[in-house]
Amino acid sequence: PKTKPSNLTTTRRGGVSTPFPEKLHEMLERIEKDGHASVVSWQPHGRSFLVHKPKEFVETVMQKYFRQSKISSFQRQLNLYGFCRLTRGMDKG
After folding, report:
1. Is 19 exposed, middle or buried (0-12, 13-18, 19+ CB in 10 A)?
2. Tell me, what's the pLDDT at 9?
3. Whole-prediction pTM
């Protein structure tokens, strides 16, 4: 019988099929079509995003795209991938 080389598996390290940054980008690209742009959206310049309504974000958006129920888990993922909260300048939020 043929076997797959280990580098052709369908899941990545930790059993994750889609890395968090890809899920985040997909969510931000689809959010307006899904009717949740008032909850989370890209900033107008497209360099950052903003969660406008954290409670609704947890209850609707996170459940759909990330299968998480705690904002702290989402923030941990952001930190893990090098995202940071901007508190000054035109990108703050």
Report:
1. middle
2. 36
3. 0.74
